[in-house]
Structure formats: C-alpha cells, structure tokens
Amino acid sequence: MPEFDLVIRDGMIVDGTRMPRYRGDVGIKDGRIAKIGRLRSSDGAKVLDASGMIVAPGYVDLHTHYDAQLFWDPYCSISSWHGVTSIVIGNCGFGFAPVHPEGRERAMLTMTRVEAIPYASMKAGMPWDWTTFPEFLDSIERHPKSINILPYVPVSPLLTYVMGLEAAKSRPPTEAEEREICRLLDEAMDAGACGWSAQRLDPNGPACVQRDFDGTPMVSDVMADDTCLAMARVLARRNEGFIQMTLVSTDPMHDMNHFEQLATVSGRPVLYNVVQPRDTRPFVHRMTIEWLERCRQRGIPVYGQAVTSDTGMAFTFVDWNLFDECQAWCDATTGTREERKQKLADPARREGLRAKMPFVITEEFDQIFVTQVERDDLKEYEGSTLRELSERMGKHPVDAMLDLAVSDDLRTEFYAPGPNQNLEYLKEMIDYPYLIPGVSDGGAHTKFFTGGQYPTEFIANIARDHNMLSLEDAHWRLSALPALCAGFRDRGFLREGAPADVVVYDYQKLGAGPMEVARDLPGGEWRRVRKARGYRAILVNGELTIDDGVPTGKASGRLLRHGRGA
User: Fold this and answer.
1) How many Cα atoms sit within 13 Å of 10 on the Cβ side?
2) Is 83 exposed, middle or buried (0-12, 13-18, 19+ CB in 10 A)?
3) Which end of the chain has fewer beta carbons closer than 10 Å to its terminal beta carbon, N or C?
C-alpha cells in the first residue's frame, strides 16, 4: 500500500514561514501534510509532477462578503480560482445572522446597496433555514464547500435582532439590551465564531461611502463606542477571538485611540481597514503606517489590512452605489431605475452634483473613461475621457457624463482606475512588513470590480514584475501572517501535520486575465470576473479542488469553528 494519498513531486517549496525556498516533495495523507522532504513516486497513490513549479501554502483572505454566495457557489469564486483556500466572512458588521424571520427581506435589501449583492440572487440562492447565529453556522456546515470558511459575528444584524431596526439606528442600547447583545455574542462564539466585525463610518463625514439601501447610515455606523467596548470585554473574558473594523470619522485621533482601546480592553488582535495609497493624498497611508508601527512597538495588537490590487471599477448608473459620501449623489443614485434617471436628469440637482465628484474612485476627469454605450447613435463617445466628453459636448464633465447616461437609459458603462496606481506609494506600503494584503471584498460589488485576484497580482506584479519583495516574503504575507493574526489553527504554512491547503503554480506564467462578464448568478443576475493563469493545482484539505484551472467539484472545504477544522 502507498504511504501517501498524494505526493507532490520535485517542486520548489516556499513554505510560508519566510525560510529560503528549497526543492523537495510533499506527501499528503488524510487531508494533512504527512511528510516533506525527498519522497519516491511509488510512495503515493497519486503523484502530481511539480517540476519547475512553486509549491506554497494556500492564501488566506480575511476580508470577504461571501455570506450569501457560499450557498450557491461552493468555490466562493473568484477567490478560489486565485489560490485562496481559506476565507473570513461577515466583515464590516454586515451579514445575515442573527435575523428574525420577519427581518429577512430587509436584511437582503440592505445588502443590495452596502455591498451591492443582487437581490434576485439572494432571493433565489439563500436557504434561510436559520434564525440564530449558531443555526446559521449549522446551515453553512450542511452545505458543500470547496474552500475553508471562518465566520465573524457581524454587528449590524446582532444589534438589529436585539433592539429592532429603528431603535438600533437611533439610540444606544439599554443596559438590558447590552447584556443581551453580549450574551448572543457569547452564544455565537460558543458555536464557533471567530470574533466580531463592524463598519463605523461617520454619517456626517466625507467617507460615508457605504449606506443602507434607502441611503441611511448602517446600524454599525451609529453604534456607540461603549457598545464596542462591551463586546470587546466579551473577547477579553473568553481570551479568544479578534475584531475587524472599518472606522473613519472626522477625528483621526479618536479613530486611532478607539482601535488602541479595543485592542487593550479585549487583549485580542484588531484588524484595521483599510490602508491604501492614493495618488493625491500620500500622507494618509504614511500616517497610518506610522501609527501601526507605534502600536507594534508598544505591544498593542492592531494590524493593518492593505489594498494591494487593481481596484479599478466599471459602472453604470443603473445600480452604481459608491458615491454615497456626497449626500447630493447619494440622493440621486437611490431608488428604482426610473427614479434614478429622473433625479440624475433634474437640472435643479446638477449644481450639487457638479460641486464634487466623490472621492471613492477619482476626482480626475481625465482618468474616467466611457467604455461602452448601448445606443448606436451615441457610440461615437466610446473611448472618451470625461474631459474629452465635456469638450465635445460643450458642458461641464459631470453634466456631460450624466446627460450621456440618461440618454442611454443609464446603460452607459464608465471605467475609473483605482486610486492606488502610483508604484512609489505602493512600494512604501509594501515596505512595511506587517501589512496584510487583500481586502478583496469577495462576493461584493461584483458588477463594478473584482478583488479576488489580489494574491495572483501580489505575486505576479508586486513580487515578480516589480521586485518589491522576495517570493518568501510574499507568501508569508499572503498566508501565514493573516492566518496568525486571525487565529487560524495550523494553516498558512506548509509543515508536517498541518492541513494540506496547497497551491502549485508556474511563477513565470502566473497572472490574472482581463475583466469579463459572467452570467452565472441565481435569479438571472450577472457579475464581473477575472480568471487566473498559471495555477497547476489548488488543494484544500488534501483534495484537488482546481486542476489546471478547472474546478474538480471536490467539496473538501470546512467550516472552521474557532479556526479549527481539518
């Protein structure tokens, strides 16, 4: 009898620990790495030839929104296509549990704007066979998974479940309500949750870019600091779990102090979202990195998550939802398609819309392109920047953009490059060794952009093409660092005894394909995707889930209750 179920032969092993790469073989037995070294082909029931390939740990993505998609897509694509073998769901305080049965419809409507998940897909694809958070985890357990899943308790549904939506958006919890919130958090963590998450964007501040479907702030946006501290004390008492938070107010000092306070009170890691270089405001990422370094030196476990991939967005005004930082734009882009069309065409609104192009993408009219127009008589404008469109129409760029969109029944597609195009600033961020790459937002905003390709881009663009860091460092940052920060047990590196989450790829051929439209969502909906190139094999818990870029259908993923699960 062969000693191993599979032997990965003659690969260049980069084990995720930052140790120098070495050539060797990996023997896998019962879903775990049984032996690393020099093995014979005859030792394996199956052999995977990795000659000329890199063999490395699967990537760990701490920031996804696959909470709905996992029920209809066991692969949680596109992340799994790009070597991600473990994800965390429930980020930013958004999710679907706990939810009373009468609140399910409202919970889905909320996610149509804040994370732009199509309502028709949620309606058709979610089983809704739960009320409590433990029941939600049981539902995930029952469903096939081709990727490992670690769940946060999202704050917004938790507060809504206890207080009711109107109260949760208008006042702090009473003492009795706070005790119940903490009790339910305890209950969820007993069932296997890894901690809790929240988005806290000042409703009156310039960065409130993600709102409820009706344009109002999310529950977590108006949550009191004291409520956060009460939940932090739950983690302290349990001595387990971690916190993820996006916090942007008009007072950066408050934000930094609050993160430090949460980490100090809980004694647990706190993940800060988000560090991102912007061409016009480099002082922001520099200030953030300096603060994170001060936390490190003082032993305060606050870790930054960084946007390292191309965040360019394609959008139409049929469902565009990321201009909410400006109230005039928020008002004009809420409602049905016909309501949006009327508001965007309204001359009385134009002054407010011209006053400021929201900053979530770019304020540069020379950088936003018209990529596709549906009406034949308007095709001549395809390929124009908003600046060029303005000159051709003799109008302000905002008027030109909106007049074109309205004339085209809002179907005109625009493209705005991401704000992190400056390689010098990206290098400054990469040079800080403790930033966690990612923030893929996998499962969210899928009609606008793709973020799940970030591990492929990190290796191919940042490590290989621009030589910003070594391959050993790249794999440590993509796998071991996030796994250790977030409490994954035995994952993020290749070592004997660890679960066999493995990627095998051709270093020179690795890359992400162009953005495409895939009409593969439930309810007849569509999304944008980017396929991966260069991956020979992706294994989850020892099973080959993707073979030469083709999904095998193996459902070897696990729900990682408390970060555990083989």
Assistant:
1) 8
2) buried
3) N
Cα Dmax for the chain: 79
Tokens of 323: 């201009």
Closest CA to 314 of 418, 207, 208: 418
Structural domains in the chain, CATH included, are: 59-312+419-551 (3.20.20.140), 331-416 (no CATH)
- Top pLDDT among 537 and 277 is at 537
Q: What angle do CA 136, 141, 142 make, to 5 degrees?
A: 100
At 174, the amino acid letter reads T
| 466, 457 Cβ separation under 8 angstroms | no
Indicate the SS3 state at residue 252: helix
pTM of the model: 0.94
Note the pLDDT tens digit of each residue in 504-549.
Answer: 999 999 999 999 999 999 999 999 999 999 999 999 999 999 999 9
pLDDT band at 489 (very low <50, low <70, confident <90, very high): confident
Report the SS3 class of residue 399: helix
Chain position carrying tokens 């690393």: 36
**Pair 414, 315: CB distance under 8 Å:** yes
pLDDT at 208 over 70: no
Q: How many CB atoms lie within 10 A of CB 120?
A: 14
Cα 161 to Cα 155, 243, 309, 402, distances in angstroms: 10, 20, 36, 40
**Spatial distance between the Cα atoms of 139 and 520, rounded to a whole number of angstroms:** 23
State the Cα–Cα distance between residues 349 and 451, nearest whole angstrom: 33
DSSP code of 152? -
Which residue stretches of 225-383 are H helix? Answer: 225-238, 252-266, 282-297, 327-332, 337-345, 347-355
Distances (CA, A) of 524 to 96, 376, 516, 559: 22, 26, 17, 28
Angle at 509 between CA 463 and CA 480, to 5 degrees: 45
533 Cα distance to chain centroid: 21
- Long-range residue pairs from 341-349, CB within 8 A, at least 24 positions apart, any chain: 341/406, 341/409, 341/410, 344/317, 344/402, 344/405, 344/406, 344/410, 345/402, 345/403, 345/406
